[in-house]
Amino acid sequence: MSLIVQKYGGTSVADAGRIMNVARRIVGTKMSGNDVVVVVSAMGDTTDDLLKLAHQITPKPSTRELDVLLSTGEMVSSTLLAMALKTMGYEAISLSGLQAGIKTTNNFTRALILDIDPQRILAELQAGKIVIVAGFQGVTEQMDITTLGRGGSDTTAVALAARLGADSCVRYTDTEGIYTADPRIVPDATQLKELTYEEMLELSVYGSKVVHPRAIELAEYYNMPLRVASSFTNNPGTLIHGGEKLEVRNKVTAISHDMNVAKVTILGIPDTPGIAAAVFVPLADAGISVDTIVQNASINNMADLTFTITEDDLEKATAIVNQVASKLNAREVLTDTHIGKVSVIGSSMLNGPGYASTFFNSLADANINIELISTSEIRITVIVKEDKVLDAVRVLHSAFRLNEA
Amino acid sequence: MSLIVQKYGGTSVADAGRIMNVARRIVGTKMSGNDVVVVVSAMGDTTDDLLKLAHQITPKPSTRELDVLLSTGEMVSSTLLAMALKTMGYEAISLSGLQAGIKTTNNFTRALILDIDPQRILAELQAGKIVIVAGFQGVTEQMDITTLGRGGSDTTAVALAARLGADSCVRYTDTEGIYTADPRIVPDATQLKELTYEEMLELSVYGSKVVHPRAIELAEYYNMPLRVASSFTNNPGTLIHGGEKLEVRNKVTAISHDMNVAKVTILGIPDTPGIAAAVFVPLADAGISVDTIVQNASINNMADLTFTITEDDLEKATAIVNQVASKLNAREVLTDTHIGKVSVIGSSMLNGPGYASTFFNSLADANINIELISTSEIRITVIVKEDKVLDAVRVLHSAFRLNEA
Questions:
Q1: Which CATH superfamily groups domain A255-404?
Q2: How far does the CA of residue B105 sit from the closest CA of chain A (Å)?
Q3: Theoretical Cys-Cys bridge with A108: which of A63, A134, A203, B192, CB 3.0 to 4.6 Å?
Q4: Does the pTM exceed 0.80?
Q5: Candidates 1.10.260.30, 2.30.110.10, 3.30.565.10, 3.30.2130.10; correct CATH number of B255-400?
Q6: Residue B392, Cβ neighbours under 10 Å: how many?
Q7: Is the CB of residue A256 less than 8 Å from the CB of residue A343?
Q8: A190-208 per-position pLDDT tens digit
Q9: Is the dihedral of CA A328, A332, A335, A339 positive or negative?
Q10: Nearest CA in chain A to B93
């Protein structure tokens, strides 16, 4: 008998009808002779609605209280799913993060999983039950409820699959899997049968919303293969795994893009050691992730520093950067939100022949101006004007012949 | 320093504005130098909304799952209240039933409190915090969430007050306290300063909705005085207590009435031993409380049996009674929902002089026909036609001069 961990997102359980639909899928897996553990997100917009409720009370809710409040969203969806399964004649039980033994740090609203005590889950499985676990939540040593922050439910699913030694972990979503590019933008984008953890991680960090990077990192760490498939069809979707079983290759896998990007430029900083630290330490302390960084060569002992962040963080970042710039006697701080990121991802790409030239030539031929460049072992990213992002995705998808993938 | 347990109902925390209002009241109590533990119900119609959600999935939800679902209502209100207090600058913490150490039986949807482990509450109080406890819920030995059924939050408050040895337990509501009759029906009804547990228990069972009988029984058992007061004014309300400190008296205290009454009559039952058992055992097994029972004198070896129940139970009861009646070869089953109950409550009333005659004479003078009568040590109840109930309340209130109370 195999143990399968499934994860269903908020849109898959947005109303009673969809919950019944998910229940039927789970029954299918159970009937095929598997033990099933299901991780579920809150219904539709529940989490946003609860946040609004909190903000009616105070603009800065206590994070300890906020976590209890938000955790109720997944408690509701998990109980409804368990009810649906029982109504269909299957033994099922919902477990909160606490009951599922998910122990976390006490960083409220962004707790990290420390360990999972699987006793209760294993006992319920042994009793023949389908176990529904409320995603996104855990409990501290003091029995206080925590939430795991962004990507929380994906992370719950992968962590459970790893800890339980599951044979398979499937993240169901409203797409058929991972594509060579966003099919809404590139109509001949093709669905990938498989890709490596590293490729998926770069795809996620650079724009794909399908699986949260944090869950992929965890899957990679525990070498827990993760399948992404549609909750509306029975297609196999895309398998994300370690790569040992993949064909040896050095080719481009997929293109991702991200419009939620803002650029901050500090102009005319008197060139002294420690500029980067002066800027990036307070940003990191404020929880702001900085992406591409470019420091221009110093002219007349004056440097320019440019970096990108998510647009969501711009207001907070600008306040910090203005203070720092004034301390550094910099001339000016500029911001720009009319930009986007386009990334090409592929194993061993940078070591392969001709990738960089194909990349830059195709963009130049299409008259797309590159503002900033950053690269990793398996990724080339460029920042371009926002109105050029979709063009760039299409041009690159075609240049790398991903429609033939 | 005194320890005060306060309980706020669903209407008192129905929206953000009312939650802030409740928070201000709590701060007032805290600022007067008291330790405060607050028990809170779910916001407004939350519990009904959650029930509806469950019934969209299945007409008969698993009770184990239903309890987790319903428990989220009080988790939400308790966290919002704690956020409100923290925003006002006061240290506060919400605790779920589990975190508050409320151990119950595993009768889901109607669990009984077995014990309270007050460790966490006491630790938080010692740390100077206002403790907000989610009412209506507890946890089994297996760490499964339970709800306490009807009157659950009132019961949580009284049980906590008793276990913590509180100096005072106040149940805030939308009325000023307990009245000699419903002031909407009897304009010169007067507010009672105090009454005994027994009087309040009879009042609650016979129509007053202010405090649930179960909470009053618990208050009596632990001799935990319970104050009922308005959450909108600062008046002292009504104190329900043991009576030792009350003036010695034998007088009528209050009139209650209840429209939610149905009468079931089984006509023409061949008179054999065991009729009552045949009827009332299956009703009790179905969880239906039977009130006034009258079995007519047998004529020609045929008996008639009449009893009252709440209208809510009528459908379920009729199905059972029809089956039993057919087994007993009874002639006919009649039901009537156009009736109501009027009760006069007072300590030592039945032993006092002239109460029964005042009672029956005043109704006769007002041409109010009595269908059934039942009495206890401290109560006389009559069943009358529904359209005579309010008349009867006014006539009795005046006859016993309760406007002078």
A1: VC0802-like (3.30.2130.10)
A2: 18
A3: A63
A4: no
A5: 3.30.2130.10
A6: 23
A7: yes
A8: 999 988 898 888 888 777 7
A9: negative
A10: A65
